[in-house]
Design brief:
This protein has 7 helices and no strands. It has 140 residues and is mostly helical. It binds zinc ion (ZN).
């Protein structure tokens, strides 16, 4: 007896938010770790390799302390630890609220490329400025 081929059932795509579930869970776990263990007083956080090698602050130096301060509601201390991180986080939250649930346009890839280049440029500028005399207020 021969079995007739059946048609392939239609693929049911998962909701868009499920794609971000692993990253969201990892972010929550990392946020809980930083919330309960202050990076300024607990030494198990990895040290910045760039700072260890050069003595200069990279664009990310102070970001963990800034996250800890933000999670405890201290925006001023967070801004002092890493202003770029706070600004990027605020921008990311605003972007998330603005585009949540919208369908992506065909130009979204080009927009992301522009954002990425702007981020690279801002990071380089921030890294240079925070290591110059007179801009110590940008250093953690
Ligand atoms: Zn660093």
């Amino acid at each position: 007896m021969r079995i007739a081929p059946t048609s392939v059932p239609p693929r049911i795509s998962a909701p868009r938010w499920r794609r971000f579930l692993p990253a969201g869970a990892a972010g929550l776990a990392l946020g809980a770790l930083v919330f309960f263990f202050n990076p300024a007083t607990h030494g198990f956080y990895p040290a910045c390799v760039f700072h260890s090698l050069t003595g200069w602050n990279c664009p990310g130096c102070g970001a963990t302390r800034a996250l800890h301060a933000l999670l405890h509601g201290n925006v001023r201390l967070a801004w002092r630890d890493n202003a770029l991180f706070v600004a990027l986080l605020a921008g990311l939250v605003l972007y998330g609220f603005r585009f949540a649930g919208r369908r992506q346009k065909s130009s979204a890839g080009r927009r992301w490329a522009h954002c990425l280049w702007a981020l690279v440029g801002a990071s380089i500028l921030f890294a240079v400025l925070r290591n110059l005399p007179g801009y110590e207020w940008l250093s953690p």
